[in-house]
Predict the 3D structure of the following.
Amino acid sequence: MKRLLTSLGVSVLVLVQLLIAAPTKAATTIAITSPSNSAVISGSSFTVTGTATANRTITVKVDGNTVGNTTSSVSGAWSLDVTGQTVGAKTVTATASTQLVYTNQLGPGGVGGSLMIKTSTFDNSQVGTFSIASGGSFPTTWLPNRNFTKAYGTAPLLNSSQAFVIDLQTETVANFTIAVTNPVGRSIAYNADYSKVYIADSANGVVRVYNTTTDAEVGAGITVGASPSAMVHRPNTDTIWALNPTDDTISVINTTTDTVTSTLASIDADAASLAFSPDGNHLYSGTVTGNLLELNTSTGATIQTSSSASISSIDDMIITSDGSTIYAVPFSGNAVAVFNSTSFANTANVSVANGTYRGAITADNSTVYVSSPDLLGGAVGTTLTAISTATNAVTGTITMTGAPLTPVMAPVESATDSISITLSSGSVLADTGANMYLYIIIAMGLILPSAYYLKRQFGR
């Protein structure tokens, strides 16, 4: 059984649509207002207070060790009690941070109303949008560069011949046509230094290469297997791996020479997706029949297999940064399956809104976001679901105005402020600033004459 993501018969009407101005995302700031810098504090406890951009996670450290977390209110105020500290000089640091998830969305009125939605992972609120419609189409899948300044997109769900360039700084989108006969751009990958982007042209069995500075095509394309679909960069290497589901192979591309250096020919006939562990040592594939596979990186043969009765396919895999857990997202399913990457056991299944498509995970591995556009229903789904990785339970459901497709995490945005303080022992002498040596001298002055008097009087 095979399935390429071809046209789903979703009828879309291109509309010229005026967009309501989106709110501007506030840059993250923070300041410690108390204690004051260089303050001397009696005891082992104190309270840190300050201001920051609203709705930010605040992390407080003393001498580099985290002592607690809190959040800034809607007015920006925050405070944290610090206890159990030792006497001496201390450096207190407070960091405010947040992370946004960007999700491309098919507009409710058609392609012309397609937007990029920016959502705060702090409270799942929408913080901004911008148009991604260009040239009568829009990117249904997209991948940013390392610095999150630029991204490339394709429109495989629309069988489009266009590729898209998204400027994430100016929030503008341009498009160009892949320069061959009847191309269909699908998966996207970058080389190790992000100087080149690779776009799988499934209609022609070729991977196209573009310079990410000029957007100009490099060479005439790399011939791979039939109908390349999923494509990933292998971490810590100069290779990109392209899955060719029509002939059940994987083409390994050397990104220095832009040539195929090997072809793995023992791929499961139902393979539909690819993912590497963060260290690049393990290769996983999801199948259209709902199996999770670990593949031998030399032959492509299946090493181990797992499955879940809750899902019927695996079209996307989200892996935690330590490589221990895999979240498998089906195409148009109603659950996300969770697997342990060592035992390969299906450890949990999380029910979500009908019609799942793609997912992304926060930098701290705390939350997985899954889109539910319900493509088989006609792109009528409008939800983005937040799943806690600690409990594997849904913690939030965000309603979009259109059909959300590919969520991508922006880098963590943060700001830091620090002060130096001194904790004293808390004695009265230290508090009054009195000179202890003076007390000793006075005391000795009282004791010595008294002793001399007693000896004279009583001979002792």
Observations:
- Confidence is low (pLDDT under 50) at residues 1-25, 428-460.
